[in-house]
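One record is given unchanged without comment:
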Amino acid sequence: MTTGIPVGIVLFPPPTRSVLEAITRAERAGIGTAWVPSWPVGPDGLSIVTAAAARTSDIGLASGISITYPSHPLARVNQALVAAELAPGRFRLGIGASHRERIEEQYGLPFGKPLAHLREYVAVLRGMLWDGRVDMDGEYYRVHAALPPMVTPPRTPIVLGALRKNMLRLAGEISDGAMLTSSGPSYVRSIARPALAEGARLAQRPRPPLIVAASVLLTDDFAAVRQAAHAGSAHQADLATYGKMFQEAGFPLTARGLMSDELIHEIFVYGDQETIHRRLLELNEAGADEIAVNFVPVTDPVREEAAVLEILAELSS
């Protein structure tokens, strides 16, 4: 059966060198895109993607997601120009506002109104990376700049990290794709895809693709899946946006702030190779235009990674 689903792999740093090696393996396996996130504090995903651009030739590369508040959009443009030149036609710039708790508590920066902030941020990126100039006096940014004459705007696709309805609508209005994490088929079908489409209708433009990141474990042992889920989601426990999203999806966190077994089953893809293949296909059928897999090793990382890459290659063929 030929499905031809665009697929990618999500690779979290650190360590940086391991991420670069994993990108090389993914390219050899024929995977479409490598997404490298940025933690609020830690190795920068866009820098890693840029390093990967110099040592790969075919795989798509994307920051997924670079945090906006700590970096002026013009500075982000300067960084993106390097990645776009080293990986022409292969680079996507993924950005996101992160979370109030992280921006205000760790960076000491005002979070303000994230939707308005991102609208202006993308306007600067779009103007510079697509048109070569921008003249804007906004609430958050006053930018009057143009690329040097010898630099051609690379028209880099801009992907917006989005979890809930309002951000998904904004992505539908202004982005070249929305990246959704920690969400299962029901949320994709009933909330994410319609919100993205609504934003596109408001802007009278085609709906951009919905990219859904899914954690995948090659195991039938649900206890192991539960353990990995609780460990992996620990950084989400104090973030209000995730709790609200899970509530809207119909799977509220427990009284202790943990994921219920029902939520874990909904958003974590696990089982044997056939089961994982089927569940990723179901995610696509629910409305995910592209799937990006975060591979979570259980007992044998080398064997399990090879099997997951094989599944992804089959889905994309």
